[in-house]
Design a protein that fits this description.
single chain; 177 residues; mainly alpha; Arc Repressor Mutant, subunit A; 8 helices; 63% helix; globular
Length: 177
């Protein structure tokens, strides 16, 4: 059972389960199980890159996403998907650091959106920053369309508790406006 005061710890078994689900699906990119692999990859990727102090958080996220996008097929074929991902990510980080011309481009200007616009939707990033790691994972999974009962089982909570967590997150978003 996961505790809200303890960070999400993935393991080789979680990777293998996500891999099996995606291999069994017709299109891994469109599979609802891709979210499982994504959450595991981001968590393990951040831990693997934590020792690279010269790489900022934004670049770490870019490296994780780039590897996941470029190597999904290889990850799905790997005998040990976690070991393959972490090793490949470490090599990618080392390559990035060795390149003399590696620079982070400035972020493009953000489009100003009228806050009264109903189509603006849920600004998930603001809410996730204010939640516990467990609650943030639950809200993200629900936002990505995962079944709430499955989310509840995965986090060792009830379906009603998942609904409460999502409701509190929406309330917090309302407080930000």
């Amino acid at each position: 059972m996961l505790s809200s005061d303890r960070p999400f710890l993935s393991n080789a078994r979680a990777w293998q389960l996500a891999q099996a689900h995606l291999v069994a699906s017709e299109d891994p990119w469109r599979s609802p199980h891709f979210a499982e692999l994504y959450v595991i990859a981001v968590a393990d990727g951040q831990r693997a890159l934590a020792r690279f102090r010269r790489i900022d958080a934004s670049r770490r996220a870019d490296l994780i996403h780039d590897l996941l996008v470029r190597s999904l097929d290889a990850i799905l074929r790997a005998r040990s998907p976690r070991a393959f991902f972490v090793t490949s990510l470490t090599h990618l980080a080392i390559q990035w650091l060795r390149r003399g011309d590696a620079r982070v481009l400035p972020e493009p200007a953000r489009e100003v959106v009228d806050e009264r616009d109903a189509a603006q939707g849920l600004d998930l990033s603001r809410v996730l920053e204010r939640l516990s790691p467990r609650d943030a994972r639950i809200v993200l999974a629900v936002a990505m369309g995962e079944d709430r009962l499955e989310v509840a089982r995965a986090h060792g909570v009830s379906r009603d508790n998942v609904d409460q967590i999502v409701s509190r997150a929406r309330t917090r978003l309302g407080e930000d406006r």
